[in-house]
Amino acid sequence: MILINYEDLLKEKNYTLIDVRTPKEFKEEPIPGAINIPLLLDEERVDVGTAYKQVSPEKAKELGVEAIAKRLPEIFREVQKHAKGRLAFYCARGGMRSGSMAALFSALGYTTWKLEGGYRAYRQYILENISLYNKDVKYYILHGKTGIGKTKILQQLEKKGYSVLDLEKIAHHKGSFFGGVCEKEEQSQKKFDSLIFDYFYKNKPEYVIAESESKRIGNVYVPEDIFQSLKNGVHLSLDTTIKHRVDIIREDYAGATIEELQNCLDKVSRYIGNGKYKEYTNMLKENKIDELSEVLMVDYYDPLYQKSIETYIYDSEIFYETLDEGIEKVVRYLNEKGIFGKEVAE
Known about the structure:
Layout: E1 2-4, H1 6-10, E2 15-19, H2 23-28, E3 35-36, H3 42-54, H4 57-82, E4 86-90, H5 96-107, E5 112-115, H6 118-134, E6 138-143, H7 150-159, E7 164-165, H8 167-171, H9 189-203, E8 207-211, E9 216-217, E10 220-221, H10 224-232, E11 234-239, H11 242-252, H12 258-272, H13 274-285, H14 289-309, E12 316-319, H15 323-336, H16 342-345
Parallel strand pairs: 1-5, 2-3, 2-4, 4-5, 6-8, 6-11, 7-8, 11-12
Antiparallel strand pairs: 9-10
Helix pairs in contact: 3-4, 6-9, 7-15, 11-14, 12-13
């Protein structure tokens, strides 16, 4: 078994990164690319922790050994199934769990590493290095009112090979009171940070195209260096017809239930007054989704966004009636700036 830090691990190619923490720990704070082969399951770790606090460390170790012993055949099969090259194990702090697994598989003839400091050291490393990888990256920021299709344009630009940083996609949130609707799960801050670092490390972009964002997206916060780059980038103002915006909103929230939309309206209620809240609720009950979308955008979201619009100077203003037209005009602008997607460059 050899100790290796995360920076040196990044220089390696032929290895399998194995997280031996519980499934819950792994879900909330994984290292991208790692696989989870837990030494203890969630309930078992709770039992061990309880025994440690209420009985003794010796009792906790006894329970842990018993639980692990039962799982060893399954653990071995899982490692065999996924193993490619050297095995790099990690746990929360690079302690007993990863150390015991690395020692065991080393004794079985595998070449093993233990990630020094575990997940905690990894997190410290990425937080220190996000700013380093982000330094000198030029940002092109798409601005526009709710429903104009900024995210859809970003998605198409990415398909064309442009360097796109889609923070809302990484955050699992569209950035408003309705932003969590139709998303599969809430994002954790630690996973959000990891995916941003992973994007910069893998792509090493000279520029990125992103959408204008608040500091907070859903329940996660944009790292400060990234947020400042969003503010200091080159700004493009996008706009389209209200009819087109309603069409986009309808498509974006097609899978939403009435209950989910009502919950979001409840959150907005304290900002719109009781009269409008009742009016909007009745529209929702009557399934007047298009009418509700339009009135919410015009009466609530547009005035809010206008304040943000007025704080920037725009390098270009782009109007379109269809998404295809919008994408074409944004691509034309980027090409004029000497920025080409891989699709064009190749």
